[in-house]
Amino acid sequence: MNTFKAYLKKEIIESWRHYKYLILLIGIVLFAILDPIILKLLPEMFKNEINGDLASLIQIDMKSAVQNYIKDLNQISLLIVLLTLMGTLSEEVSSQKLVFPYSKGANLSAIVISKILHYSVTLSIFIITGFAISYYYATTLFHNNVIAFNKILISSILMSIYYIFIITLLIFLSSILKKGIIAALLVLILHIVSSILVNIDKIAKFIPYNLISLANSFSTENILTTIISAILYCIILSIFTMKIMNKIEII
User: Which of 18, 72, 168, 210 fits a disulfide with 234 by CB distance 3.0 to 4.6 angstroms?
Assistant: First the structure.
């Protein structure tokens, strides 16, 4: 328990010191502000380039504005998160930063849990905040096809769970590979492969990427199965990571 508290405090301090909070905040929340504004200005920006009424050609409403934010979370924000957090565990192992705490009796399993929990909570807060901001601007600028806030909230929770899975997977792979950039690349590849596999109806509800599909469609179909599956994957990956860390030669 002491190790967990100490490393949780350490992660918070280092995240402030290395501007990780700022980078993650900008990478997730900035698009919530910019997307609705850009979509609103889009017809005006291209009115001289395209003949006719561009507003009638491009139908943009509140729902599509929020969906555009989800698309950015699925692409650009995900890349920012991976690049920012790819060395969370691997750098400490490769640079032997764990030698001193290990020699003092630190519990390596607690270190793993503190890292997963810290960034899971951080990203969840940023994502839910981003959805709330996106909803505010989208409803202010667009008045057609309005989505109820409770559906937006559900979508934000689904995206948060997916990001928790991504963080857990990233830390697991970095514990094996010891190279953050390789771990991040593998997570990105698995993310892309999952986006293809989710089109197979029989297995879609067991694939974590389905959380993004559900968030984007504001649907609750098979939502419980996908959530439970994603949580189970996170638990299994966390256990494997702790076992790997407990067997690794620190000294």
Answer: 168
